[in-house]
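User: Can you fold this complex?
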Amino acid sequence: MIIESTLRPENAVSRTTVNAGDHYIGVVKRGQTLRILDLEGNQAADTLFFSAADTAEHYSAMDTVREQGAVYLTAGSKLISSEGRTMLTLTADTCGRHDTLGGACASESNTVRYDLEKRHMHSCRDNWMQAIVNHPEYGLTKRDITHNINFFMNVPVTADGGLTFEDGISAPGKYVEMVAEMDVIVLVSNCPQLNNPCNGYDPTPIELLVWE
Amino acid sequence: MTHDAHYTTHLPGGHHWSLRLRRGTTLTLTAKQADSNVGLLCYNPENLLERLNLPDTLKAQHTFKLTQGHCLYSDMGRIFASITHDDLGWHDSVGGNLMPHHLLAKGWQPVSYQQAHNDWTRTGFDAFLVELAKYGLGRRDMAANLNLFSRVESDDAGKLSYVSDHCQPGNRVTLRFEMDTLVLLHTCPHPLDPAADYPRRGVDIALGIAEAPNEDDPCYRSRPENARGFANNRLYHLGL
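Assistant: Here's the predicted assembly.
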């Protein structure tokens, strides 16, 4: 569902550009709005959320899919925690569909998906590891790294139970916006994937904007 | 392929169990009633941080459902188990767990142990937490679980629906373990089960010994990704 935002970038309280292969970790407070902007198109933003009050409560892909009765995320979707609570609500989306089933690329899963000798390429999971090691103040460890949202990724499910990876439906300037229903830690890996056509083999920057 | 059952038991509906299965053993589950559901999670007993990763499992095999020929992947690119036999053709990968708030929403009265003794209504969420705690694990460690015997479909628009009458009495699924695996099981209902009352549907469990898979093995051959997954297991057994 395409819903445009009325928020203006010049009124944002923070704007952060995240280059391809870089990570972002920070807090978005209850009531604040977060926009993830696909600056150059066909990028995937691999995103996890944790309750800032209790990091054992985290975004749950399966609880989200089941409670909204749909496998794709778009405007109106509620992002549900591992405890069944709404963490954020998607309020605007100019892309139309986001994946939460495909998971994140990892050095280890790249060996399975592409080639055993692809293990030394940078990956989202390594990116998250770098983020949690660089920021011990959030108290996150490998056991907290769970199943994520791939904003801007298109992973269609077929009625007979297949899963396919299609070209992205994002484009330069497309964005998704969400309002936080609780204080959340946002952990983003701006995907460095070079092995599949999801980003045209050319990972590009994203921008994160926050409004009060 | 038949396996001599070395141990058989029954897990009643609404209950939970965990067991460590060695590489080369099989776990066969047989539904006793229609619309049975078995929640399943896997961990590496040598490193409990390695656990079942359903997103990696689905995307490696380009599938939304799991059935015979598929493998269950850990987050470390290894195969915990292969599905070597399946009567159903579809096991659910996205439904997750029955949560405490579902009991009220469904009108499945929460009944306490004080009231109902062993017939109290337990949730898959709490069942897994009890089993996880036995290994020093907790809420942070609960990955997305499989729901064996259940079917949840998606239409072209992504809308989900639970399929009733998918599982029939006698339906059987066999997992062959490709590395030592800590298995958590519960027989709590699927969270999308529309039953009017909390359904208690148990399964028979049989443990056996598998023949070692070779390169003609259907799970090995079902996808080129799985051949690489088995290669990662061979490296693991070398000590890498």
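The radius of gyration of chain A is 16 Å. Chain A touches chain B through 48 residues (CB under 8 Å).
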